[in-house]
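INFO batch 0412 | record 1 of 1 | parsing
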Amino acid sequence: MQPRIAKLPSLRRRRWLLCPIAAACATLALAGAAPSSPPTATTYRVVPLAPNGSPAGINAKGQVAFTAGVDGVPRARFYDGSTIRDLGTFGGPDSYVEALNDLGQVVGLASTPVPDLYHAFRWTRQTGLVDLNPPGVGYSSAFDINNKGQVAGTARFPGATPPGGAFRWSPQTGMVNLGALGPTSSSTGLAINDAGTVVGDSDEPQGPRLTLVTKWPPGHGPVALNAFPSIASRALDINNAGQIVGSAAFDARINDQAFIWTRQGGLQGLGTEPSYQSWADRINEKGLAIGELYTTPVDGNGIIWSRETGLIVIGTPGVDGSDTRDVNNRGQVLGGLNGRSFVWTRAEGFVDLSSRVVGAPPGLTAFFGAAINDSGTIVAGTNTGSLVLLVPQGAHHPHQPPVAGPVTFTGPARANALLSFSAGFTDIDLRDSHKAAWSWGDGSSSVGIVSSTNGTGSVSGQHAWRKNGIYTVRLTITDSSGKSSTVERKVVICGAQGAISGEGTFAAAADGTGPGARKAVVGSFAFLSEGPGAGNAQVQVDVGGMALRSSQVDAVTVEGKRIRYSGQASVNGKGSYRFALTATRSAKAGGQDRMHVRITHSEPGTGAEVVDYDNGRVAGSAGAATGQAGPAAVGAEGGAVIEGRISLGAD
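INFO prediction complete | emitting C-alpha cells
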C-alpha cells in the first residue's frame, strides 16, 4: 500500500480522565458566550518557531514536537525551549512526528533508503533517532508514547495475514506484536497509558474492513469493547485510570457515536445522538472531554463535555462550522468557530484567542491554536503561515527572536515588473539591533533594508521576476544576539491581465475525514492559469507536512465566482497523486473567500481510491484516517476560510 503522506494522522490523543456521563445538553456560540468582564484576562506574547509546521503537541516543559516543511520536504523537529532540532531520518528524505511525552521523548516515523518504506522511531536527546523495527518488520509508524518511554503504533509483521498489526515497544522488550481479534484481522495501536495498556481498533473476527474498539492490557491479548462493528469504531484516548474514549457503533445502524468506557460502566455514549457521527478524542484529568459531532456528512461542530456542563455543541449545527483541538488539566479548551480560534473555560466562556495576543507586529492578526499545556502555553499558527508559541504574559521564557509580521508587496504581479516588499516586526529585547535577508524563490537573494527603534521595526526590499510562475518569498530577520525568525509567502507572477490566480493561507483540519484526524495549524496555497485550457496551469498546496506540486492540470473550470482545478501531482516529491482544488470568491463585499483541496492516490493492485488529504467538512471516511482504502469523501466544496486573494480574471 502506498503510504499516507500527511503521514499517518495523529489518531493518538493524550491521556486524560473522563467522569461519568451527565445528561444535560447545551448549545453555545462564540459571540456573547463569555462574561463581559472576566476576573482575570490572560494575555500572550509571541515566540516564533518555524515558517510552517504541523505540531504533534506541547509537553509540561513547554517543549514542542512538530513536522516542518523544509524546501518542500517534511522533517521531524523538536523545540527544547530555546533551540529547534532536526531529528533526522533513516537514510531517506523525510520524517514526521506524532507525539511527545513530558520527558522530551518524541515518536513518529522516518523514511529509509527504500522508496515509500518508513520505520517507526523514538528520539531522545541522549540516544538520537532510534529505529524501532526489528529485522523483517516492514512499514511501521509510532503514534503515541507514555511517560515511561513505552510506544504504541502499527507495523507490518512478517508472516501475518493481513500483515498490519498494533504493537507495543519498550527498551526492554523491543517491538511486540499485540495481535488482533481474529486470525485474518488487522489492528492499529493509537494510544498508550503509563500502565502500558494500548488502545485502538481491530477488524472484527469474521474478516477485515469493519472495526471494533479494542484494548491490549499488558500480558493480555486483544479485548473488544463494543459488540457492533463499523467502518470507523476506534478508541482514541486512554488515561492512567484505564478509562477510554473514542467513537463506537452502539447498534446495527453503524453511525458511530462518542463514548467513554470504564470498568464500572462499560461502554457509554456521551449523549450526542441523534447525529450522523460523533467522537471524543481528548479528555483531561478533571473530566473535561472534547471531540466532534456531525449532524450530516458535511456539517460538523466541536463538542465539549463534562459532568458539570453536560454536552456543549459549539455554534449552531448546519449554520456554523467549528472544531476542538486540545484541552489541558486547567480546563482550557482550544478550538475554532467560523475561521476564528477560541480559548474556552467555564469561568470565561469563549474568548477570541487573537484578542488576547499583545505586542504582535502590524498585520499579524490571526492566531490558530493547536495545542496547549497545563501552564497555558499555546502552539498556534498565524496568518503568515508560521508556527509560533503563545506564552502567557509574566511566564518565564529565555531570550526570544524577533517576531515578523506578514510579507506584503505593492506593484503589478507581472513578469519583469519591479515589486516592493515589506514586513513589520517586533522584538521584546528593546536594545537589540537587527539585520534581514530576502530569498526570492528563483535562486536569488538580497539584503533587507531594516528600520527599527525601541523594539519595533520594518524590513523592505525589491525584486522582479523574469518568468511567470509561483514563487516562495522568504524573509529572515536576525537580532544582534544571533536569534532569528523566518516568514514566507507565495507570490503568483502572471503575464496576462486577465489571468486566473490566487494565493493565501488557511486554517483547517489536516485531514477532515474521520475521528481522530490530525489538526493542521495553517496551510498555504497558490494557483495560476493563463489563457484557455489547462495546459499552462500550476497549483501548489503546503499543509500538514505535505507539499503538493501539480505535474499536470487536466481541467480548469470557472463557474461564476468559483474556480476548480483538477489533475495530477507530486506530494513531497513523489508522484502518482491526484488532486482537486476549488477556490470560491465570496458573493458579498467583505465576505470570506474559501478554498477546498482534496488529494488522493490509487491503491496498487486494487485500484481503490485512498484519500490522503481533504480539508472539507467531511465525516465518516475511515479509510482516509487510517491510510486504508475507504469510501470517497463527499461534498464540502466550500472548504476553509482563507487569508489572501483570488482573481478570476475579470477583477
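INFO post-check: The chain has a mean pLDDT of 85.
INFO record closed
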